[in-house]
């Protein structure tokens, strides 16, 4: 016999596919007053146990699908080698791959990709564009054997977080360009673990909602990676947040 | 004759009425309470259902019977509760009660912890526990997901631990790293020159070898983990009670062992939980008791009668877990190590890590046996920083010669004086008390793994995933130490 279940908070669900930032959610504090938009299932779950279980089941299902997409493709890797495996994995998730001296291979409008890359067993992959793909920590298993990878783009990936960045160090010898713009789960702590990537020449850290102090983080990352051009947050960005000073300055410039 | 009969009848009637009158007049407490409890039992037998006392409010009291009582609501106790509910065969099969003395967790080791997680241990079981805990923390929003609640942000810094060894310890460090790599931890060894290239702010004088954890190591916010576990465990239907365990009532039976000696086996069947600031207590009938009381586990074990016997026998072996006070200092150093600084642990035992983005650092040092502070309270000794912590740190990181201490706090280690490793599993004589304590400073990082191991022990009878049979209580009696060498 269980204790009566704790009452559900009627908060707009973060799990309903929309990616929200985890900014400012240290601890388990439920944000108040976000009760305007509730889906029908959410509303009913407050009244019926069956709907509550259904929502939990749907949540579990969503996580299972993500795991299935990111499973390790060891069987392909045995037969075709690491480059084909990586290419297949990325194309399967909806990204694009570029082999050395070849063109970009992407999905066409119907969501199919050409299988010509199956001939390129020995050709290393130079660039991977995984923008917007559902890649996560386990999926990176398939990307890490790509020892000649020079450019990696993880823009707007909803499941790439600090743990994933911690895993990128095997690519340190070849990686020159990395883009993390718009990833909702990356914070300054994950950026700190990029110090292994000493060959990096261009790093894009713009529009990271979970980074608490973008200007200061930019300065610290620039100090950490001296040979790299860090693009993204402007160090003067936080200084512009003074609405009282600015209009005055423009209207009445103080004569010195 | 009639009159005689009448008198007799009257007499008897009178006697009865006199007796009835006297009963009503006496109204002695003994009789009344006995009657009330009989009345309650009758009502309960007619109306089965939730514990509810119709006469007065008992919402602050724990339920009257529970299957498992977990003494201690810190991260280890909550982890055991979580895994018990997760691994039970049928939903709602097990009734779990968590008894925590202080709901503000003001002295609990969990909240005061520095929050590090590392795989750099010398014992394979410790490495496996840490690896599992790292994967638990990585997927924490799948494990501890509660529908409609915001996801947990553990604030994990994946920066790794950097352990420095002098000439003396270099060989042991190499052996340890070999064991760690075998178990699957990603650790790399660095020479002093590589160390200087990577971290130019380190003074490598006296350092022969360094081991650096590349993945799954770092530090996180333990309070967030605690709250997340609490929230999830409450949603799974675990009872919470704020109270103190004051007594165990046990029944004992004596049996003869193979060599013909008489052994007294005890079973705890009732736990008395006393409420705060009152004499009110609730006897909770239970099947199992799990001792996860951290620094106070020794006291709880004594209540159960563990250690009451002649020295050198199994009855006389106490639980060697006692509270040890450790200081943590927070300082500001404007020219200190940058964003990439790992948690550096010097060969002298002093350690530090970065805290936040504002050039603040947290650190401390474990005192030697002679310098152990008195664990009676949590007062901080600032002289300890000046004399014992600052000199080795300033020698290792020259930038720390100019620093300013901002604040400090103290917390307890549930220190296992025998071999500084945890105690897990049932007691050989008190058959239904299970231990999950004694982790001497690395309890937080092993809590998910230990919780699962204890839940497996309770539900299946043996360990299924990680084999912690070397952590049993019996090693204290048999004298088999499983020493953990890398203690920070």
Automatic annotation (TrEMBL), chain B:
<protein>
    <recommendedName>
        <fullName>FAD-dependent oxidoreductase domain-containing protein 1</fullName>
    </recommendedName>
</protein>
<dbReference type="InterPro" id="IPR006076">
    <property type="entry name" value="FAD-dep_OxRdtase"/>
</dbReference>
<comment type="function">
    <text>Required for the assembly of the mitochondrial membrane respiratory chain NADH dehydrogenase (Complex I). Involved in mid-late stages of complex I assembly.</text>
</comment>
<keyword id="KW-0560">Oxidoreductase</keyword>
<dbReference type="GO" id="GO:0005743">
    <property type="term" value="C:mitochondrial inner membrane"/>
</dbReference>
<dbReference type="GO" id="GO:0032981">
    <property type="term" value="P:mitochondrial respiratory chain complex I assembly"/>
</dbReference>
<dbReference type="Pfam" id="PF01266">
    <property type="entry name" value="DAO"/>
</dbReference>
<dbReference type="InterPro" id="IPR036188">
    <property type="entry name" value="FAD/NAD-bd_sf"/>
</dbReference>
<feature type="domain" description="FAD dependent oxidoreductase">
    <location>
        <begin position="67"/>
        <end position="457"/>
    </location>
</feature>
<dbReference type="GO" id="GO:0016491">
    <property type="term" value="F:oxidoreductase activity"/>
</dbReference>
